Structures are given as structure tokens and as C-alpha cells.
């Protein structure tokens, strides 16, 4: 009965969405305030209905209601409770229900916090947001209904994919969806502005908090996915340029570009057309990512579904919304004239460079991702585009971006000179050079990569600190603490990016790997560490069987860690998994993977020493934290510019 109530609530939300996308839009066109105002209660009602629907599906998973086909195919009575709950979205149908729940959440948030928006703009934003929801309601109801019953319910289920039975994967999809779907608000604001023919500084201030929130959620989601791949898949890597990894990375790049572009619209009322286009394309790439994950046209370990019919439906949604928005953009682009004139050497010019680099980088990732599909469709050839292509094609844009960011952050608006701008960064330059010399002195192996990466990252970190000090006007720490939160947020995010640069370069340049057959009680050496395989025991888990090794690690005769890598088998699905054991450290990770037992005795053991690898996720946390700090700044409130004039000063919210 609860499942039927959830299904009914889903259909009611579908109907409310149809109302919300039509009546308020008509009211905005006619100037009928009652019709326009009805968008707000409709958005709240849609959220309430979706909470009921999603809650009903969650109850079905928690109570192991195997009469629902979705529960039967993705759960089991022996599964731990956290994975019963995460099983709700650990599949195609449930994840799409979460998708529309988050769409409704953002629509309700816009209705709740958009009270100071002009009534017609608010009605159109909520109408466009509802139209996106309606498309996905139709997708769920007609192709991906999570509430289908089975005529003869089985006694137990098939269990969730063992790779998804992990805390990292329990939280990774919700954060990604908050980012993906959050970009729908930027899209809705862009389309509403195109319909009204109004793109100005106030519009930029309205759209920036939604974009920043989506970017923060995407940052967290991508970092969680990277961390999960690092410790769960047993290959020791943090990024493989997998198509689904790329599907989340492309919107992240475009959202970052949109954040920086909106600054120029807000401060100088320039780049209006480009900013609107970025808002459309950022959400468009979120839809492209959804198509990649769910269509089956590109194979990936992360894919949810392999159904061409569903892929065609998503492709139709992509064509209607992105194609329609671009058509509207083509009609309105000539009206969005820029008011601010600026020199190439200026903050505006630096932000344009930033946008070009991020957008082209996203396009490079897109080409590399879809090229195998294009080659197969056009020439019938099966190709693989792997990390070497992406590393060589993508990295140069990031190098230029890292060089330009500290400079662009302190350039004056309208016009500037590079020589004068570099003066406050002399200290940052000296410290960066010192770090590069130090890294070169201690380098072993690929010193060029280590020196360049450490230099670029240090330049970003010290440049962010120099910018904060410059904002104080050299008046001391007291003024530093009184700086706007957005300034602190921007500096924190840029420093986080710098730390990630350092970590990626150093781990790739200095990491070491050892693969061998280890005999019990026979020591072997990896780098500066001595390791001994003591035994391998059978362990029975809650819903798996495991062979767990005990490996003692020491350095210079002093014990460092006892590592327990595993090889697991989940009997319900008959699927083996590898569980790495990692000794985490500030400067390095000691990473051990257990392989198969060998016919001649001993066990295959793979060992990695990964210097600075934890700094990758520390940098990601700092980037997300910087975004959150900026969101707390009063100037980031959704309707900050609705009733206040633009304040033109030298303090700029985080980009």
C-alpha cells in the first residue's frame, strides 16, 4: 500500500509540474499577478509530493519489500542497513527519482528565497524549472517506474552491486545530483532572462548563488567518487578519465567558468551573451552526462543502465531543452549588448581568459569522451581514448589557468599594466621559486613534472594569500579578519586548487609500485619500507566471504602499520571484489592489495607508495569550503540586487 501511495504522489507531482510550467508562464506573459504567484505554492506542493514518493520507495527498501521489482533486483535481507538505504539510489530507477526530488527541492528553494525577484521573472524561472521536472517525470513514469510490482514476490533479493556497498558510494551520487540538478537553476534563470529580454547586474547576482551551490556540490561529489575509486577498486589511481568521470567533470568546468563570467556581468555589465550561453551549456552537459550514464552507448564501470530506449528519451530531453534554449538565445543575442568597455590587460580580460581556458578544456574532455562513439558510428572502428590523450590535451590549459589566476585576481577593472600588478606578487614569486628549487633538490624520478606541478600549485596558494593581504591595504591582521567572507572564500578555493595541483604532480612523479609473490614470513622491501606477509585467513562478513591477509610494515626497524587487504566474494551475486588496505599519512600513503594464491606457494601482493596523495582530497575539501564560505556572504543572497544599487568597489565576491 505504501508503494502505491508513493506511485500516486509521483503522478500527482507530475500533474502539479504541468500546472507550474504553464499557468505562471501565461500569467507572466499577460501580466496576471494571481497566475504568476501561483507558481510558488505549486513549487512547494511539488516538493512535498516528491518527498512522499521518495520516502515510500525508501521504506520499501528498508523493509525489504521484494514485491517491488526494483527492491528485488537491488537489495537483500542480509545487506547492512546503510546499503539498504543507499540502494534506493544505487540503481537507475531510484536514482532518477532522486533526480526529480532534487529538481523539486531547487524549485521550492527558488520559490521560498526568491521573494524579492521581479514577479514575472520569478514566475518564468519557476515555470522553466517545472518544465524540466515534467520531462523527467514523463521519463520515469513511462520508461523507468520504480514502483512496479511483481506478481509472485520472491523470498529474497538479488542484492546490490558489491562495488556500490561502500560508504563513499552511499553519499557520492546524492552530492553529484545536487550539483547536476543545481545547474538547472542557472539554466532556468538564463531561459527566463531570454524570454524577458533582461540580462543585467541584478540578474548576475541572482544566478551566482545557485551556480556556486551547484559547483560546491559537484566538487564534493567528484572528490567522493575519486576517493572511492582510489581505495575501493584496488588499482591505486584517483582518476582514470572514465566516460562517467568525465560526465561530471565537464559541467564542473563550465560551472566554474559561469561563476567567473557572472562576475563581469555583475561588475561591468559585459559578457552578457557569453554568460547566458555558459548557463545553458553547463546544464546541457549535465544532461549529456545523464545520457552517457544511462543510454548504454558508452561502456563504463559506473553506468546505471544499458537501455537504448531510455537513451533516446534522454536524448530527446536534451534536444528539446538545450536546442530550444539555444534557439531562443539566437533570437535574443543581438539585444544583449555589453555596456562596459575594457582593455585586454584588466580584470575583465583575465576573466575572459579564464572562461576561454575552462570552456576549451571542457570541450577537449567532451571530444575525448565521445570520439570512440563517433568513430564506431561513422567508420565502424572500435577505438579507445585513454589517459595519455587527456593528459596531453587537457594539461596545457590548466597550466595557463594556474599561471593566470593569481594575476587576474588582483588586476584592476577596465585597464591595468602587468608590471604594476606584479609588484604585490613579488613575495609569492620568491616563495614559489624557493619551493621549486626545494622540490628539484629532493626529486627522484620524473623531476620535471614534480617541479612544474609544485611550482604552479605554490603560485596559486601564495597568490591567494598575497591577494588577501592586498585587500587589507597593508593595514594589518585586524583588517584581514574584517574582510568580506566572499574574499576569504575565493582565496580558500584558489588555494585548494593549488594544493590539488601540487598533489597530482607529486604523486604521479614520485609514486612507486611493487608487484611480487610474497611468501609467508619472508620479508620484502618496497622503497624505504620492509613488509612481511604473516598469514591469510578466511573471514565471514555480514553478506560476504573474505580472505584477509595480515601484512606488517616497518621502516628502519620501527613498526609503521599492520595492513589487512582482502579478497571478498559476495555469494548472492557471486561477484569478487578487492579491498585494499591503506596506511594513510600526511606525506604519503602505503597502499597494499592482495591478489590470488599462487600454485607454487605464496600470494600475489601489489604495493604502492603514494606521496602527497591525500592532498588531492584535502585540496578538494578546501575548494568546496571556499564556495561554502562565499555563500555565507550577504552579497550572495539570491535577491541581493533586487532593491539595492550596484556598489562599485575593489572588493569582489569569490569568483
UniProtKB/TrEMBL annotation:
Role description: Required for the biogenesis of c-type cytochromes. Possible subunit of a heme lyase.
Record field: transmembrane: 6-26, 47-72, 96-114, 126-148, 175-195, 207-229, 249-265, 274-292, 312-331, 352-374, 394-413, 425-443, 449-470, 491-510, 612-631
Keywords for this protein: Cell inner membrane, Cell membrane, Cytochrome c-type biogenesis, Lyase, Membrane, Transmembrane, Transmembrane helix
Family: Belongs to the CcmF/CycK/Ccl1/NrfE/CcsA family.
GO biological process, any: cytochrome complex assembly
Subcellular location: Cell inner membrane
Bilayer topology: Multi-pass membrane protein
Predominant localisation class: membrane
Domain Cytochrome c-type biogenesis protein CcmF C-terminal residues, every copy: 315-634
Molecular function in Gene Ontology: heme binding; heme transmembrane transporter activity; lyase activity
Organism of this sequence: Paracoccus gahaiensis
Protein name (record): Heme lyase CcmF/NrfE family subunit
Record-annotated Cytochrome c assembly protein domain positions: 89-295
This protein's GO CC annotations: plasma membrane
Amino acid at each position: 500500500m505504501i508503494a502505491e501511495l508513493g506511485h500516486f504522489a509521483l503522478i500527482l507531482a507530475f500533474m502539479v509540474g504541468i500546472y507550474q510550467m504553464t499557468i505562471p508562464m501565461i500569467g507572466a506573459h499577460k501580466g496576471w499577478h494571481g497566475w504568476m504567484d501561483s507558481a510558488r505554492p505549486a513549487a512547494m506542493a511539488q516538493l512535498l509530493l516528491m518527498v512522499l514518493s521518495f520516502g515510500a520507495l525508501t521504506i520499501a527498501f528498508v523493509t525489504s519489500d521484494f514485491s517491488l521489482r526494483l527492491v528485488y533486483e537491488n537489495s537483500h535481507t542480509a545487506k547492512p542497513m546503510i546499503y539498504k538505504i543507499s540502494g534506493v539510489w544505487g540503481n537507475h530507477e531510484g536514482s532518477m527519482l532522486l533526480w526529480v526530488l532534487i529538481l523539486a527541492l531547487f524549485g521550492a528553494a527558488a520559490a521560498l528565497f526568491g521573494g524579492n525577484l521581479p514577479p514575472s521573472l520569478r514566475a518564468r524561472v519557476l515555470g522553466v524549472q517545472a518544465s524540466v521536472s515534467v520531462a523527467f517525470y514523463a521519463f520515469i513514469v513511462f520508461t523507468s517506474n520504480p514502483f512496479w510490482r511483481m506478481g509472485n514476490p520472491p523470498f529474497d533479493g538479488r542484492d546490490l552491486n558489491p562495488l556500490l556497498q561502500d560508504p563513499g558510494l552511499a553519499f557520492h551520487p546524492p552530492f553529484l545530483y545536487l550539483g547536476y540538478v543545481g545547474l538547472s537553476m542557472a539554466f532556468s534563470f538564463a531561459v527566463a532572462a531570454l524570454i524577458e529580454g533582461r540580462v543585467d547586474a541584478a540578474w548576475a547576482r541572482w544566478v551566482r548563488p545557485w551556480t556556486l551551490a551547484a559547483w560546491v556540490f559537484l566538487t564534493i561529489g567528484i572528490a567522493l567518487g575519486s576517493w572511492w575509486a582510489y581505495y575501493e577498486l584496488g588499482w591505486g589511481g584517483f582518476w582514470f578519465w572514465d566516460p562517467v568521470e568525465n560526465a561530471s567533470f565537464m559541467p564542473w568546468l563550465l560551472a566554474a567558468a559561469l561563476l567567473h563570467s557572472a562576475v563581469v556581468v555583475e561588475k561591468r555589465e559585459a559578457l552578457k551573451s557569453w554568460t547566458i550561453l555558459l548557463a545553458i551549456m553547463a546544464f546541457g552537459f549535465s544532461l549529456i552526462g545523464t545520457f552517457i550514464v544511462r543510454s548504454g552507448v558508452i561502456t563504463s564501470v559506473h553506468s546505471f543502465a544499458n537501455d537504448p530506449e531510455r537513451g533516446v528519451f534522454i536524448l530527446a530531453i536534451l534536444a528539446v531543452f538545450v536546442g530550444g534554449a539555444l534557439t531562443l538565445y539566437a533570437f535574443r543575442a543581438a539585444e544583449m549588448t555589453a555596456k562596459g568597455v575594457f582593455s585586454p590587460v584588466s580584470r575583465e580580460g583575465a576573466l575572459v581568459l579564464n572562461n576561454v581556458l575552462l570552456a576549451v578544456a571542457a570541450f577537449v574532455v567532451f571530444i575525448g569522451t565521445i570520439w570512440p562513439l563517433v568513430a564506431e558510428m561513422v567508420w565502424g572502428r572500435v577505438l579507445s581514448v585513454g589517459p595519455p590523450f587527456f593528459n596531453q590535451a587537457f594539461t596545457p590549459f590548466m597550466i595557463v589557468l594556474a599561471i593566470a589566476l593569481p594575476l587576474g585576481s588582483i588586476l584592476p577593472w577596465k585597464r591595468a599594466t602587468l608590471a604594476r600588478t606584479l609588484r604585490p606578487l613579488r613575495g609569492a614569486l620568491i616563495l614559489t621559486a624557493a619551493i621549486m628549487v626545494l622540490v628539484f633538490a629532493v626529486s627522484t624520478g620524473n623531476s620535471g613534472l614534480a617541479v612544474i606541478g609544485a611550482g604552479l600549485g605554490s603560485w596559486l596558494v601564495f597568490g591567494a594569500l598575497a591577494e588577501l593581504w592586498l585587500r587589507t591595504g597593508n593595514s594589518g591582521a585586524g583588517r584581514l579578519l574584517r574582510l568580506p567572507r566572499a574574499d576569504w572564500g575565493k582565496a580558500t578555493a584558489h588555494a585548494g586548487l593549488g594544493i590539488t595541483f601540487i598533489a597530482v604532480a607529486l604523486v604521479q612523479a614520485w609514486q612507486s609500485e611493487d608487484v611480487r609473490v610474497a611468501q609467508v614470513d619472508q620479508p620484502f622491501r618496497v622503497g624505504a619500507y620492509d613488509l612481511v606477509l604473516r598469514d591469510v585467513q578466511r573471514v565471514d562478513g555480514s553478506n560476504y566471504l573474505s580472505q584477509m591477509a595480515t601484512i606488517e610494515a616497518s621502516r628502519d626497524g620501527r613498526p609503521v602499520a599492520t595492513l589487512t587487504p582482502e579478497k571478498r566474494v559476495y555469494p548472492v551475486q557471486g561477484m569478487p571484489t578487492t579491498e585494499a588496505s591503506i596506511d594513510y599519512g600526511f606525506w604519503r600513503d602505503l597502499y597494499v592489495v592482495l591478489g590470488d594464491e599462487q600454485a607454487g606457494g605464496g600470494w600475489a601482493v601489489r604495493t604502492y607508495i603514494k606521496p602527497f596523495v591525500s592532498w588531492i582530497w584535502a585540496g578538494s575539501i578546501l575548494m568546496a569550503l571556499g564556495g561554502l564560505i562565499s555563500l555565507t556572504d550577504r552579497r550572495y543572497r539570491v535577491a541581493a540586487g533586487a532593491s539595492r544599487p550596484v556598489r562599485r568597489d575593489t572588493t569582489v565576491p569569490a569568483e
